[in-house]
Amino acid sequence: MTAQPRLSIRDIRKSFGTLEVLKGISLDARDGDVISLLGASGSGKSTFLRCINLLETPTSGRVFVDGEEIRMLQKNGKTVPASQKQVDHIRSELGMVFQSFNLWSHMTVLENVIEGPVHVLKRPKAECIAEAEALLEKVGIADKRHVYPAHMSGGQQQRAAIARALAMKPKVMLFDEPTSALDPELVGEVLRVMRALAEEGMTMLVVTHEMGFARNVSNRVVFMREGLIESSGSPEEMFGSVASPAFRQFIGHYGN
Amino acid sequence: MDLAFLSSTMLTLIAAIPMTLALFALSVSLGGMLALVVVWMRVGGNPVLAAIAKGYIFVFRGSPLLIQMFLIFYGLAQFSVIRYGPLWPLLREPFVCAVLSLALCTAGYSAEIFRGGIRAVSAKDIEAARSIGMSGPLLVRRILAPIAFRHALPAYSTEIVLMMKSTALASLVTVWEVTGVAQRLIHQTYRTMEVFLCAALIYLALNFIVLQALGLLEHRLSRHLRPVPGGR
User: Fold this and answer.
1) What percent of chain B has pLDDT over 70?
2) Number of structural domains, chain B?
């Protein structure tokens, strides 16, 4: 318990109208943690992930990134970020990978990857291109750097999206069901990239249905149910004999 | 067929092309800039500004351009604020009135075309931009506008072609562009058919060039939608 958590989330709640999707979630991620968030659809796991970088504004609760709290304030009875500038800054430190990749289709892969470093971080373009090419090499699509997203497979697009997020040199990577939109034969290539990242010590929060990844790559498994963390623990605990009945029932659906 | 007459008519009309092009270029560029302001008001989220923008679009799309032009050309002088105002030396010029009314009108249409383009931008593209820390003007400049413009371009091309043809209305407020000069030739010669045929050919030629340029632009901006050339 020496270093402060990379990411610390305290009692996040989120309602859409009268529907309370998140009912108070707290989570810490230390440097190098790889946390798998599991749960049935509707359990709130994606909403939770999107609350961390404020793509959804939490109704209440606190988010700290490397000890820096995202300042919120009340305006006309709604919670809003106090400073867009701070939100932009925090977002630039949190890499996000989306279920459906969300690459900008009018830009080539390389243009997608350098967009953030050049225009958000305002770094020299030549330097960003060199780094981007190294990243594309790392995710195994260096030969696709001048290709447009529509001309690549889903697995290649998702790897490009991971490279785009990594180009910002994020402190934490957030993955929102990164393999759920992929054909089964393409899932492996994306998981391999994620596994390599985990082994390098990247701090990761992964919303996923890939039990193999949760079990073998992550060091912590969090099971969400009806807007709450139902249980959490190491993969050994969660997939072992001490797992909660609800989690056992959940993984039963996945044939594990 | 009187080739001598046709060629002399053509030469006279060609001499008026710079005026038509000036009307066209100024009204399209001023109108385009105004359209950006109007569409920003329309979608910016401020209900008062949005209502003003809606009203503007309704008025300028809903009434005939010719009447708008007459109102500006004949009507403005009735207001002493304008008549004795600092801008009068400009506003009494037929050319300025024509450009002004063309620009105001196309701004209404273009604003709606641009709004359509903006609405077609996927929320995913915006979220991806937000997730790397973009917001405000940077997000608009780098992501929203380039994508929206691509969506809007086919419809906007049509509007631009319409504007080329609309410059003909300026002849009715005494601007000597191609149609105005054609009318004058007809009054002098009573040879309606030949003169207007020549004028029509000129507009066709001008629009052919404009359409080629717009087609080229669209082609360049849609590389990502085409099949891979040679599987690069």
Assistant:
1) 98
2) 1
In a domain, B56, yes or no: yes
* Distance between CA atoms of residues A94 and A175, nearest Å: 10
Q: Which domain holds residue B180?
A: 3-223
List, for residues A98-139, the tens digit of each pLDDT value: 999 999 999 999 999 999 999 999 999 999 999 999 999 999
Helix (H, G, I), strand (E, B) or coil at A81: strand
Q: What is the pLDDT of residues A222-236, one digit of tens each?
A: 999 999 999 999 999
Tell me, what's the ipTM? Answer: 0.92
The reply to whether B31 falls in a domain is: yes
pLDDT digits (tens, 9 = 90+) for B75-123: 988 888 888 888 888 888 999 999 999 999 999 999 999 999 999 999 9
* Residue B135 maps to a domain: yes
Residues in B touching A90 (Cβ below 8 Å): 133
- Taking any CB pair shorter than 8 Å as contact, residues of chain B touching chain A are 124-125, 127-136, 138, 142-143, 146-147, 150, 221, 223-225, 227-228, 232
Find the CATH number of the domain harbouring B68.
1.10.3720.10
- Do residue A120 and residue B223 have CB atoms under 8 angstroms apart? no
How many residue pairs bridge chain A and chain B with CB atoms within 8 Å of each other? 76
Of A95, A106, A148, the CB nearest to B146: A106
Q: Per the domain annotation, does B59 fall within a domain?
A: yes
B229 pLDDT tier (thresholds 50, 70, 90): low
Q: Kindly report the average pLDDT of chain B as a whole number.
A: 94
Whether residue A78 contacts residue A60, with contact meaning beta carbons closer than 8 Å, is answered with no
